[in-house]
Batch of 4 targets.
Target 1
Amino acid sequence: MIIEKFSMNLYEEVIEIWRKAGISVGSTDTKEELERMLQRNPDLFLIGKIDNKVISVVMGGFDGRRGYVHHLAVDPDYQKKGYGKILMDELMKKLLEMKVHKVHLFIEKYNKDVVEFYKYLGWEIREDLIMMSFIPDTNLYKMNI
C-alpha cells in the first residue's frame, strides 16, 4: 500500500469508503468541511492506495497540544490485511514528529469491531471522561448528507 496525502479530487472515493465501512457521513463531511480539515492539517489527512485505487483513509487533526484521529476506514474488501494498522502507524509517526503528547479518537458505541481494532493497536478505553457535544446551529449540522 502506498500512503499519500489526501487531495480533494479524491473526495467521492473517500466518502464511498466511509459509507462502505459503516462510518456515519454527515454535514461535517461535505466537500467544504473536508477542504477546511485539509487546509488545517494537510500532512495528517492520509489515504492508502493499492494499484492506484484508494482503499483506506484517515483524517488526523492537531490542535497545537493534542492529536485526534477521525474516520479511519479501510474498504471492506481490503480489511483484516493490516492496512488500517499501516495507515495508523504513519499518522502516529507524523503526530510524534509534531511532539504530540496524547492522541484521542471517538468510536460510535455500536462499533465493537473498531473498539477491538484499537485495543489491538494498544489504545485504551477511558473510564474517566464523558464526551459531550453542543450543536450551536441546528440548521448547519445534519446527521446525514
Target 2
Amino acid sequence: MMQITTHHFRHAFGYHMLRAGCAIRSIQAFLGHQRLNSTGVYTKVDKQALRNILDRHHPRSGHT
C-alpha cells in the first residue's frame, strides 16, 4: 500500500490548479516556491489529456 504524504497533496494541488487554468506564477506563490523551476514540474504534459484533445479536435478523428 502506498503511503500518502503532504508532498502528494502539494503536487496534486499544483497539478489540478494548473489544469484548471491557474497561472504558473500564482501556483508558485501558493506553494511558496522561491524558484519557478521548482513549480515547473507541474507543467509536464498529461498524456491521456493530450490524447483526449487530439481525439476531439483532429480533422480525421471522426468527431464533428
Target 3
Amino acid sequence: MTPPLANDAWEELLGAYGTLMREFSAEDIWSEVSMREYDVLYALSKCPAPMRLSELNRHVLLSQPALSRLVDRLAERGLVDRCTDPADGRGVRLSLTPAGQAVQRQVGRAHARTVARAMTAGLTHDELGQLEALCRKLSAASLPAPTTRT
C-alpha cells in the first residue's frame, strides 16, 4: 500500500469517526452522564474484575490525569467503587457500583440503538462484518508506544 493511500484511508476513517461522534453526542440520553463518563462506565462494565486506572486508561481516549479526575467525580457520585489491590496494597482497583451498572445499562441501551441505526444506515450486513474485521486487524497491528532513552 502506498503512503498516500494509507493517509487517504486514515483521513476517511477520522472523518467517519467525527461524523458519528457528532451524531452520538446529539442524542438526548446524556443527561445523567456525559459521553466521556459513559465511556468509562462502559469500559468498566466489560471487565470481569476490578481494574487499575492504568488498565482502564488503555480503553478510553483520555490522558491519565484527565481520567483520574473523571474517575474521582464518578466515585463521588457513587457510580464507581475503589478497592485496594490485593496484589499491591498501595494500588487501587476500580469497578462499577450497582448504581453505576444501572446507569451504564440505561444509557447503553439507548446509545446502542443509535449506534445500530447509524452503522446500518450506510453499510450492509456484510460490510459491517468487513469493517469489524478490518478494525480488529488494525488494533492488533498497532505500533508499540515509543520508548524514551535515558
Target 4
Amino acid sequence: MIDNMIKHHNIIAIIGNIVTVKVSQKAGSQDISTRFGDLALIEAHDGSTSLAQVIKIKGDKVSLQVFSDTRGISNDSSVRFLGKAMQVTYSPNILGRIFNGTGEPMDGGSNLAPDPKVNIVSASVNPMKRVLASKMIRTNVPMIDVFNCLVESQKIPIFSISGEPYNKFLARIGIQADADIVVFAGLGLIFDDFYYFRSQFEQAGVFARTVMYCNLASDPIVERLLVPDMALTVAERFAVEEGKRVLVLMTDMTAYADAMKEIGVSMEHVPSNRGYMGDLYSQLARRYEKACDYKGAGSVTILSVTTMPGDDVTHPVPDNTGYITEGQFYLHNSVLDPFGSLSRLKQHVIGKVTREDHSQIMNTMIRFYSNANEAAQKQAMAFELSNFDKKLLKFGKLFRERFMDINVSIPLEPALDLCWQTLAECFEPEELLMKQLLIDKYFPKTVVS
C-alpha cells in the first residue's frame, strides 16, 4: 500500500482541467505510488483543495483529471494520492435520494457519512452466475409489451434525436415498469430535465423505490463519466445482495461518449472516428454488460437513451451501441416506430410467460400495418383503391391512435384484447390468415366501433 501522507510538489503541466505531476518512486520499490483510477487531493497555497482522478500513468508522470477546475492550482501546489478509487454509498438509506456526479447528496438531505461505501469499479459478472433471460418487465406501453417486450437482464437503448420526447418517455417507463427498484443516471441534463424527472417520480409515488445520480450540463465533465458506474454499482448490489429486480435508466449515452471524447482530446489521444477514441466500443460495452439475471438472486436491466446527431444511425455512438445491446426502441416523430424497433430477447417470453395468442397477434398486427402504409402510398399517388385497401387505411389509422402514441398506457392482456378488437373492426375473420383455434377463442363475437 502507498503512504497516503506523502505529498508531491512537482507539478509539471496544467492543461485545461488536467494536471500532470512527476511522482518520485518509493525507496526500495520500482512502483510509483499510485494506481490508475485512484483519487488524489490537490491542495493550493490558499488552503483550498480539489479532488482529482488518475487517468494516465506514463513512467513517473501521472496525469490527473480535476473534478471542478484548475483555478487556484499552480506548479507548486501539492498532490496527495488517497490510495483508493471512487466510491459510492450503498445502503437502504439511498432510496428516495438524489446524488451528484461525485456521489454527494444534492437534495439537501443527510450526507449518509456513516453508511458503507463500495468501489464503483468492479469485475464483470462470472458467466456461470448468469441465468438465461426468461422474465418479462411489463411497462404498460403497448408498443413495448405487445410488439417488443422488455426482458429482465436486457440491455436496450432508445434511439432518438434531439427534440423528441425521449426523456418524457423514459420517465413513464420508470414509473410504470414492474421493477422493485429504479436507478436513474442523468448525464449532462439541463436543469429543466433534471427537475422533470424528479417531479415525475415524486408525483407518481415511486420516489421511495428510486435513487437518482445526476450530472447537470453545468457540472464538471469528468463527473459525467462516473455517473453510469455509480448507478450500475448500486444496481448490482441491490440485485446480488437483496435479490431485487432493478431497472437502470440512463440518459443520454451520447453525452457520455462526448465527455470521453473531450477528455481524450485533452489527453492528446489519437481519435479513431469523428473525434471519438478507439476504445469507444469497449467503454460502452463495459457498462452495458452489467445487465444480468443472477442465479439465485435478482436482476439488472438497462434501458438507456442514445441520441443520434443528425438522425444518423451510422454515427459512432449508436453504431457501436447497436453491436453491444440486444435491440433498440426507435423513437421517431414522437411515436415508437414498429419497423425501426427491435427486441432480440422477446422470443424468450412471448407465448411462454404471456398469453398463447401473443405471437400470432403481434405478427398479424405488424403485417397489416405494413400493408396499410403501402395502401397510404397508393392513395397519395392517386391510384385506385380496392375495398381491402380501404380496410387497411382504416386499420392503419386505428393502429397509430391506439398503440403507437407513447402516451397510451394499457396493461398487456387488455392491449392484446384491443388488438383483436381493432382487427374485428376492420377485417373479416377469414382475412386474418391466423390459426383458426385462436380466431375461434379470441375474435370478438360482437364488434363495438
